[in-house]
Amino acid sequence: MNENTISTIAMALCLAPGFLHSLEVVFPMFARLIVNYVLPFFGPGLPNSKNQITYEEQVEMLDSAIAVVKEDKKTAAKDYIFVILFEQRQGSLAFLSLIVGIIYALAFPLTERAILHLVLLVMSIFFMLVNANHAGIPFLGNHPKVSRNGRNVGIVFSGFWLAASILNYLAFTYATQ
What's the rounded Cα separation, in Å, for the pair 123 and 104? Predict the structure, then answer.
C-alpha cells in the first residue's frame, strides 16, 4: 500500500460519522434512526419495527424529563433539552464540514494534506478514547447512561478509531517528510 493510498483510506474512514449523522443538522430528532436502525446490529440483532421509538415517543421522553423537575427549575430543564438538541445539530454541522474538507483534500497531493491529517488524527484519538470509555474503561470520562448496545458500539468503534488514528498518523508523517 503506498503513501497516497494510506492517506485516502485514513480520510475515508473519517467520513463515516458525517454520513451517519448528516440529517441531524435539519432534524436533530433523527438520532432515533440510528437508535432504530443502526444500534440493534450491536445487540447483536436486527432492527425490529415493534421495538423502535417514534418521533412522538421521543417528544414524550423529552417532555417527561422536563416534567420531573420542580416548578422553579422548569426553565433550566427546558434549556437543558434545548442544549442537547442544539449540540446534536452543531455536531452534525461539524461532521458535514469535515466531509467537505476531506472531499476537497482528495484533490491535493499528499504533501498538502498534512494539516487535515493532523486534525483527523486528533479527532480519531479523541473518538477512540470516548468509545473506549463507553466500552467500560472508566478513567476516560463519565457517561451515566451507556446502554448495552452503546457499550458494544464503544467496543467496536474503539478499534475503528484506533485504525483511523494509526492511518492518519502515518499519512501525517508521510505528508510532512
Answer: 18
